[in-house]
């Protein structure tokens, strides 16, 4: 963290309390700057703008954003890196992140160092809003094998100290690490937090007592939220983020919903190419206003979400997102064409005793494959119970195959997804 990072954090902290009009002004200024940069420096965007006879000066307001065609991950990865990155930015000095490629292709995103730090500060703002102090110790789950990154200088003076826990290690290892580290804050994907809570409950451990728990990058279903809260006796705060967008929106300590970081990005919820009104579901498209090395302008994230019609009661000027219902790829498609979000599946399986871990994959031919890892509490008719509960969700003639497996493998670089559908879906936008 350098002096300008401190200033950036100060600015972000101040921004959250600004009036919506002031935030809109910040947003549009940042958008105009990014669009100009992308047009001048990135061949892909130059072509994209030219294809619709648009110039950066046509973007006068946020509503003008709709003049820019939408970009998908598939479009970007099909092009050589030099086509989609900025000419004036040295990629060797960039921070690189790789996104999940569970059902599609993974994409590498490049960030200038200052942009990357600023995006991290976007996460920090959410943590601080929930009462985290900079001197708290953090236990952070990571999808990668256990590594001990070199601490930053500020960690040596007791700020933002982090211990990385690898998702690939067993819960026993996490517990022993957490006992030594005694973090006040634990952050991680829902599945990691759930497995940790499960292990703590089984062991009867009571000495791991974080004051704050943040879940990230997956859907926090009601059951998981309640289970983790019951075990840790602390509320779980959900943050919606991704490699391409950073911290996109975060649950407010006071309001119902997630404040959208509109000073750092533009979030659109679309259906058939048009913005849907708050309260209605649509596809999430973002413009990352700090994506200078590899601009992401009107980029399809592949998530389905709903904006909230509520005006924030906390006094923050950032609008509220009601919920993220799931990834488009995670919606199960019935033979009738109807889409079902992953949520009911969490509810259906919670009533079956002895399920330690599960995953549902809908194959391209529509068959629903249910994999379960079971504990000793799983009863002899457990599989029939699973089927009966799933049948409550859909009365279609969807074929279900249940198998009890020893392990469900998780790709270390990806967030764990419990429901995956490989059935091709009609585009929402
Ligand atoms: Zn609020």
Mean pLDDT: 88
- So, the CATH homologous superfamily of the largest domain? ANL, N-terminal domain
Question: If helices are DSSP runs of H or I spanning 4 or more residues, what is the number of helices?
Answer: 12
* Text of the CATH class of the largest domain: Alpha Beta
| Coarse shape | globular
Would you tell me the structural class of the helices and strands? alpha/beta
Structurally, how many domains make up the residues? 2
- Number of extended strands: 20
**Looking at CATH, which topology of the largest domain would you report?**
Rossmann fold
Proper CATH architecture of the largest domain: 3-Layer(aba) Sandwich
- Rounded to an integer, what's the Rg over CA atoms? 22 Å
Question: Helical residue percent?
Answer: 25-40%
Describe this structure in words.
There is one protein chain. The chain is an alpha/beta fold and 429 residues long. It has twelve helices and 20 strands. The strands form four sheets. It has a twelve-stranded mixed beta sheet, with helices on both faces. A four-stranded mixed beta sheet has the order 19-18-17-20, with helices on one face. The model has no long low-confidence stretch (mean pLDDT 88). The structure holds zinc ion. The site of zinc ion has 7 residues, from loops.
């Amino acid at each position: 963290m350098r002096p300008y990072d401190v200033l950036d954090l100060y600015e972000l902290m101040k921004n959250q309390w600004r009036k919506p009009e002031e935030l809109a002004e910040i947003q549009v200024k940042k958008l105009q700057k990014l669009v100009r940069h992308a047009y001048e420096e990135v061949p892909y965007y130059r072509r994209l703008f030219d294809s619709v006879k648009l110039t950066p000066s046509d973007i006068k307001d946020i509503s003008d954003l709709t003049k820019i065609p939408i970009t998908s991950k598939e479009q970007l990865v099909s092009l050589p890196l030099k086509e989609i990155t900025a000419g004036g930015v040295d990629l060797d000095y960039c921070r690189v992140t790789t996104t999940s490629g569970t059902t599609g292709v993974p994409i590498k995103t490049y960030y200038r160092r200052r942009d990357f730090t600023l995006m991290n500060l976007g996460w920090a703002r959410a943590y601080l809003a929930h009462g985290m102090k900079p001197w708290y110790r953090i236990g952070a789950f990571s999808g990668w094998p256990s590594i001990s990154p070199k601490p930053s200088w500020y960690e040596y003076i007791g700020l933002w100290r982090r211990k990385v826990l690898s998702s690939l290690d067993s819960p026993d290892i996490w517990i022993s690490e957490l006992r030594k580290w005694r973090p006040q804050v634990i952050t991680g994907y829902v599945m990691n937090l759930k497995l940790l809570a499960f292990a703590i409950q089984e062991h009867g451990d009571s000495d791991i007592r974080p004051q704050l728990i943040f879940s990230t990058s997956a859907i926090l279903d009601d059951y998981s939220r309640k289970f983790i809260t019951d075990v840790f006796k602390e509320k779980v705060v959900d943050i919606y983020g991704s490699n391409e967008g950073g911290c996109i929106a975060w649950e407010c300590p006071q309001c119902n919903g997630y404040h959208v970081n509109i000073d750092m990005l533009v979030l659109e919820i679309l259906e058939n190419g048009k913005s849907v009104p708050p309260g209605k579901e649509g596809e999430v498209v973002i413009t990352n206003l700090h994506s200078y090395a590899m601009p992401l302008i009107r980029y399809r994230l592949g998530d389905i979400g709903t904006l909230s019609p509520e005006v924030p009661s906390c006094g923050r000027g950032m609008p509220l997102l009601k919920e993220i219902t799931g990834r488009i790829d995670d919606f199960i498609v019935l033979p009738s064409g109807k889409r079902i979000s992953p949520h009911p599946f969490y509810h259906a399986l919670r009533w079956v005793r002895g399920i330690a871990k599960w995953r549902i994959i809908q194959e391209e031919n529509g068959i629903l494959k249910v994999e379960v890892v079971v504990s000793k509490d799983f009863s002899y008719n457990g599989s029939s119970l699973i089927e009966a509960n799933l049948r409550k969700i859909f009365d279609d003639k969807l074929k279900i195959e249940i198998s009890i497996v020893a392990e469900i493998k998780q790709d270390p670089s990806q967030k764990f997804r419990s429901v995956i559908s490989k059935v091709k879906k009609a585009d929402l936008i």
